[in-house]
Design brief:
Helix 3 links the parallel strand 9 and strand 10. This protein is 27% helix and 24% strand. The strands form three sheets. A six-stranded mixed beta sheet has the order 10-9-8-11-13-12, sandwiched between helices. It has a five-stranded mixed beta barrel with strand order 1-2-3-5-4. A two-stranded antiparallel sheet has the order 6-7. It has three domains: 64 residues, OB fold (Dihydrolipoamide Acetyltransferase, E2P) (Beta Barrel); 142 residues, Rossmann fold (3-Layer(aba) Sandwich); 61 residues, Probable gtpase engc, domain 3 (Ribonucleotide Reductase Protein R1, domain 1), CATH 1.10.40. It binds guanosine-5'-diphosphate (GDP), magnesium ion (MG) and zinc ion. Magnesium ion binds next to helix 5.
Length: 292
């Protein structure tokens, strides 16, 4: 049988398959290979039949190849990364947003940008988000406290394993509750309380409600600076990647080289200045770290 791991606790993995949850153990081979099954893993498992005393339903035989996986929090297969910023409280940082976006792109996730707390926003700030990000990613404006924007986000997340990432206080838990709200989790563990509030989540869990699948991920409040070759960076800025091959030098870093198509595009307003600034800041940081 095939299914997806909702969570792992105390050596048991709770696998959702065709609307039912099975408590499974993992074959010893995974430990030998140094592989830990993670919430979000797609697995093949077999049911244990005819045991005298069954304290579990099945055994995980295979873990399907992962799209991506993360250590902190420990989850696999984040298909959609919703990056949440608040319009205020806390004030957004475009540089931070772009760093989150690069991490998402690098992980091969589909990126969605969500601006919450629109009720507290200066209209000019929302306009700035709209101008910069509308051409690049799906952009959702929300007031999670009032449920505004919920339908738009729901439409984007249908059928895709999604995580909410962003600084603390921006409303990730409020949004998760809104999307999953009122539904009884298949594991019986979801409650508004477990998603909200102070109690830090000790394990990662994938919550399923109808056709939504959302990781409870208090850990996605900061990404570590991705360790990568600085030359890779521009490939995670789609508007720069689109200009690939147009610079004078094939290995142009789009920093100070002559006849750089990216800098040309910035000066003509085809690539946003704030995005380019984020690129420069990240590039410089990556290059400096390489020198040690
Ligand atoms: N004004 C306003 N407050 C919100 C909104 N969404 C969430 N909040 C509040 O912002 C605070 C932080 O929300 P929370 O979901 O815990 O943020 P998290 O740290 O990202 O999980 C809470 O007091 C929420 O009630 C919103 O759309 N507007
Ligand atoms: Mg939270
Ligand atoms: Zn260039």
């Amino acid at each position: 049988m095939r299914g997806v791991i909702l969570k792992g606790i105390g050596g048991f993995y709770y696998v959702l398959s065709e609307g039912r949850v099975y408590a499974c153990k993992a074959r010893g081979i995974f430990r030998k290979l140094g592989m830990t099954p993670l919430a979000g893993d797609k697995v093949v498992f077999s049911l244990e039949e005819g045991q005298v005393r069954q304290d579990f339903d099945g055994t995980i035989d295979e873990i399907e190849e992962r799209l991506n996986c993360f250590d902190r929090p420990p989850v696999a297969n984040v298909e959609t990364m919703v990056i949440v910023m608040a319009a205020r409280d806390p004030l957004p940082s475009f540089g931070l947003l772009d760093r989150f976006i690069v991490s998402s792109e690098r992980a091969g996730a589909r990126t969605v940008v969500c601006v919450n707390k629109t009720d507290l926003a200066e209209p000019a700030l929302l306009e700035r988000f709209r101008r910069i990000y509308t051409p690049l990613y799906p952009l959702v404006f929300m007031n999670a406290e009032r449920g505004e924007g919920e339908a738009a986000l729901r439409d984007l997340l249908r059928g895709s394993q999604a995580a909410l990432a962003g600084p603390s206080g921006v409303g990730k838990s409020t949004i998760a509750n809104l999307l999953l709200g009122g539904s009884v989790s298949l594991t019986g563990a979801v409650s508004a309380k477990s998603l909200r509030g102070r109690n830090t989540t000790r394990h990662s869990e994938l919550f399923v409600s109808g056709d939504l699948m959302i990781f409870d991920t208090p850990g996605f409040t900061s990404f570590e600076e991705p360790e990568m070759d600085p030359a890779e960076l521009s490939s995670y800025f789609p508007e720069m990647a689109a200009l690939k091959g147009r610079c004078r030098f094939d290995d142009c870093a789009h920093m100070d080289e002559p006849d750089c198509a990216v800098r040309q595009a910035v000066s003509e307003g085809r690539v946003d200045r704030s995005r380019y600034r984020s690129y420069r800041d990240m590039y410089t940081a990556l290059r400096e770290r390489r020198q040690y």
